[in-house]
């Protein structure tokens, strides 16, 4: 019974350290881009945390870029007039870092695009698709709408790219959120006025769990000592 009590206490006191280190983050709260009307490009958006520059590129010069309420914050980056291949882009350096992950909040209006690819590059010209995903439509039942005062976790995406060694210790890393949709979930064609917005784009170091290995070693040692005493 004593060994069982010891092991139970050991497991109970063991913890995992899972504090992710942020490399760069765009919240659009500090470096808020000015609204831009009838232009296919918005650029030069500096990171609010760390270093890096964000931009957006559309094929249509009729695109309007705005900063409506984010996911629990005052600002996000939003744009209309989406066609396949249009994207948001985030560029930074990862020198001194390895095991990269990204997280962000993203939503579309009821006539905005639904389907996107997360792509990465280290040269800014050749991009690789890491994952394809679908966004929820903002405020369309049963989806809660975005507001400056309430964070909605359903709109948050998190991708672990630690398996991509090319992103480690790189002078330049590019991430793109690329529209691949032509139709919305309801089957209607994406409208000219349909919007998509992004918020809280964060590049971080994926935390490595610690403590379990130590616990395993202690359990093994305790078991051996217990067996020897018997």
Structure commentary:
The protein has 230 residues and is an alpha+beta fold. The protein is built from two helices and twelve strands. The chain has one domain (20-229): Sandwich (Jelly Rolls). The chain has helices at 2-13, 212-229, and strands at residues 21-26, 41-46, 53-57, 65-66, 77-79, 87-92, 100-108, 115-121, 128-134, 156-160, 173-179, 196-205. Strands 1, 4, 5, 7, 10 and 12 form a six-stranded antiparallel sheet that branches. Strands 2-3-6-11-8-9 form a six-stranded antiparallel sheet, with no helix packed on it. Helix 1 (2-13) runs antiparallel to helix 2 (212-229).
Shape descriptor reads globular
The share of residues in helices is 10-25%
Give the overall pLDDT as a whole number.
Answer: 86
User: How far is it from the N-terminal to the C-terminal residue, by CA?
Assistant: 13 Å
Q: Number of DSSP helices?
A: 2
According to DSSP, the number of beta strands is 12
Radius of gyration: 22 Å
Structural class: alpha+beta
* CATH domain class: Mainly Beta
Label the CATH architecture.
Sandwich
For the biggest sheet, the summary is: 6 strands, antiparallel
CATH topology: Jelly Rolls
Q: What percent of residues are in strands?
A: 25-35%
